[in-house]
């Protein structure tokens, strides 16, 4: 998976800008608050910011209605971080600013990272061990924070620009105009700083609308590390605060990489993130190739000053657990992390990092194509939400295989959908039913013309 502080910028560089919903009057905003939402009354600035994501009239194609009702009626509330979350707190059928489907609500509260015998829990605990041994008693750990956060926490507090692609409905799950499912664990950074924490690790499930393939999933897990330094820490070092923090950061993370991967060759790559300066990516040479491990940097002064840490410096890093676990355990498909199949779960044990996954019978895929004329509001993420809503984890990949524009200026896309269960062979009837439903939903919800 993508490291926490890399993704917001990476998407802006490698993906086309999503079409944002047209603004509506601020009065149209829902005043509903989830129990966990920290939002106070709207200021004029917040109204203007949120208005960018409201659509006057019906919601944009795919922005709200991409959800299934399979388990909606029977969905039980879940407890996360002491907060009780019911389906109606997250999936709001009557709120035009909501785009969270039932398939996403069903993942809240599962907390794979808190299972000691799960690959993600094993990796998390190994990282904890490194920090406990390297910095005894210094880092406070948070792994049960509620994933419902405000737009301010998720974006503004970490300096994500107001016009950044990551704020769009195409990339983020909005509960309402002011509340989202966190896109990264950095959403808790400002709150923890204000509470007085100077050394902390935050781990949790994060949510992003994304493509469908073996390495991407709309729910995954991240860890953020954060350390604050006071002037007394660097005054005798002969370095300024920024250089001191950057040196300590690199030393700390090189040690973490050796702890996880052994004696590997490493290199640092300069990069850009909106909330750190300077910013870096750490890569290791592993199994014959360079692997990006994490993103990191020296925290922007604006973040520290806004949260009561004037004249201090800090570093932050972020990593995706699935990305590293797929390498360390040789797990080929990200969907496997969510499997309850004993042939998967029984292979892993508490404290045993790097046990190599032994594939069980791999059932054959079935490929089906769907072609249609796209409209101006079409995005691939919306298509993937439709397919996930129908097929769930039975869809392995959605891939664009052909596109062209005719003399009338109409553009056609052809997508190949790969259906495959990790646990059994799918019948022709099942696959045909899913494909028929996908075609109907694509036509009705994305408002495209099938070919």
TrEMBL record:
Signal peptide: none annotated. InterPro entries: aa-tRNA-synth_II, aa-tRNA-synth_II/BPL/LPL, Fdx_antiC-bd, Fdx_antiC-bd_sf, Phenylalanyl-tRNA_Synthase. GO terms for molecular function: ATP binding; phenylalanine-tRNA ligase activity; tRNA binding. It holds the Pfam family FDX-ACB. It is found in: Mitochondrion matrix. GO terms for biological process: phenylalanyl-tRNA aminoacylation. Is responsible for the charging of tRNA(Phe) with phenylalanine in mitochondrial translation. This is phenylalanine--tRNA ligase. It comes from Brachypodium distachyon (Purple false brome).
